Amino acid sequence: MQTLSAMPHKSTRIWLLLGASLTAATLGAVMLGAYSLTWRSVINFDLSSQDWMILWHIRLPRVLLAGVVGAALAVSGAALQGLFRNPLADPGLIGISGGSALAAALVIVLFPFSTGWMGLYGLSVAAFLGGAATCWLIFKVGQLGAASSVAHLILAGIAVNAMCAAAVGFLTYLSTYEQLRTLTFWTMGSFGGALWPSVGVSFTITLPVIVMLMRQSGDLNRLLLGEQEARYLGTDTEKLKTRVIALSAVAVGAAVAVSGIVGFVGLVAPHLVRLLWKADHRVLIPASAVLGAALTISADTLARTLFAPAEMPVGILTSLIGGPFFLWLLLSRKSGVRS
Amino acid sequence: MIHAFAVSVIRHDKTLLEQINFSLSPGELVVTLGPNGAGKSTLLKTLAGELSPSRGHVLLDDEPISQFSLPQLSRRRAVLSQSVHLDFPFSAMEVVLMGVQRTVSGGDPFRLSQEALKEVDAGHLAQRNYQDLSGGERQRVQIARALTQLWTGVGAGPQYLMLDEPTSALDLKHQCALLKLARRLAAKGVGVFCVLHDLHLAAQYADRLVLMNHGRIVAEGAPETLITSQNVREVYQVESRIMPHPITQRPMAMID
Questions:
Q1: How far apart are CA B162 and CA B22, in angstroms?
Q2: CATH for A294
Q3: How close, in Å, is residue B47 to chain A by CA atoms?
Q4: d(CA B82, CA B180)
Q5: Which of A60-64, A191-195, B184-188 has the highest mean pLDDT?
Q6: How far is A164 from A225, CA to CA, in rounded Å?
Q7: Using one digit for the tens of pLDDT, what is the confidence trace for A113-170?
Q8: Segments forming the whole domain that contains residue A100
Q9: In CATH, which superfamily holds the domain spanning B1-76+164-256?
């Protein structure tokens, strides 16, 4: 389809704004922390070897990881909200978070001997598989209805999420004190364990997913008119739903695997883009990616610096901000939430 | 040509359509009338290929309509449903652009969409938020979307436009304008299938009327032969007298 931009001037301005906020968030995140670097030295690469060590081994992978996880969550949030035709949909809604948390908890409690590197990777892969499996299950249950309706999917998501939460709760009873700490940390979300390999893995997964989701933009727009209307316009809605769910599962699974559950980014970022700009998925998806990255990087910087040298899990911070935002959305009439 | 042969639609043990034989040719404007629940929308969806009949079959150009892929079908017929909900802040123009077909033919899609909006007297609404529009304005924007679908999909064969109560939210001026638009489209070779409730509008503009009741076609034919007090009484249980329009001579049902 041809590119259609009604108001190029407005788009340029907002892309500049988004780019500037991401750059500012990144620079701030690189400089600030228990050990501060000045912006002059960062920009001019005028760094002592100690500065360089910190920048290369600690700050940079962490900032990049926060950015790519934020982008992945925001983009899947945007796509899922389109899929469910509900601006309140979040990656958590269709059960990816619940499934990931359950799989991670299973690994922590049932395989306590798997520690260190192996443990980290085991945990990550489990979270990814758990999220994808739950997502697949919800999708199948949702299809049991005559013509897989969106309401079916959402209700199935709620049920499976509740079961996953109960199972995780049960596992916390079984766990030892040490396991409980790991479990808690995981479910709260953190970029504390950022290393270059995890940065590489999440980038190579997330970027192609964003590109592939962007290619569904036109069809996602039509789906907002309703499944029947989208089919009348020539969109294969069954294929579209499968694609969007699979792509979102991959992106969120990869994000949760390296950082635990960082909530509400997938809700807040797309909504801000719609509020400030437009709901057209051609714009919404890439803009959410940039904004999600900037927001998550900023949140992580706050989480690191508010109580430095101690550090709070970034998931707590995002929930602290995202929770009230969610309530505000529920209460506000302009949000377009169906009653 | 769209043909329905002995089509029955049964859903949840309820017969929605029974033994329907119907055809829609390119270039004609057919209006379907009938009380609520008569099966008008079901017939429209079946002709559009969205509902598959329980018995009988629907053919598009002598091929089963189920053989067509969704993108193939979408270039042949556009559908305006009774109600379309949109819960996200799109501009009217963006809604119209959703009609643009994947393989665009017929010209620049942006320009065609603007023309479609002007065609329904909604050119001035292009940049307005769709959610802020009135019911009638929304309906006109949706009609423009269907027009854009037709205009960007030309070249795949004769086209059809299916409108399910397109005038339900329109004022008198725009009701007439819409039916005149349907007439112009028919003159250009588009087969128009339109569900209406207004006997007067239907009789004034349609080439052919279809009267439905209880999932069956009760009567079919030119307005002069179909709008009779007997038909009106039988289908609507309303007493009426029929008078010819002073100028067009088309029948008008005067309710007693």
A1: 14
A2: 1.10.3470.10
A3: 12
A4: 20
A5: B184-188
A6: 32
A7: 555 556 666 776 787 788 778 877 776 776 655 444 566 667 777 888 888 888 888 8
A8: 46-332
A9: P-loop containing nucleotide triphosphate hydrolases (3.40.50.300)
Q: Is residue A12 part of a domain?
A: no
Domain ranges of chain B: 1-76+164-256, 82-155
Interface of B with A (CB under 8 A): 48, 50, 70-71, 73-75, 78-79, 81, 84-91, 93-95, 97-102, 104, 108-110, 127, 131, 149
At residue A233, the 3 state secondary structure works out as coil
Residues 237-276 of A with CB under 8 A from B: 274
**Considering its fold, how many domains does chain A have in total?**
1
Segment of A14-18, A107-111, A316-320 carrying the highest mean pLDDT: A14-18
Mutate to test the interface with B, among A225, A236, A280, A337 (most CBs of B within 10 A): A225
Chains A–B, number of C-beta pairs less than 8 Å apart: 86
Contact B70 A231 (CB under 8 A): yes
Q: How far apart are CA B58 and CA B67, in angstroms?
A: 10
Residue in B81, B97, B104 closest to A229 by CB: B81
Q: What is the pLDDT of residue A210?
A: 95
Residues A15-70 pLDDT 10s:
999 999 999 999 889 888 777 777 667 677 677 777 788 888 888 999 999 999 99
Beta pairing class for B191-195 and B208-213: unpaired
Distance CA A24, CA A8 (A): 24
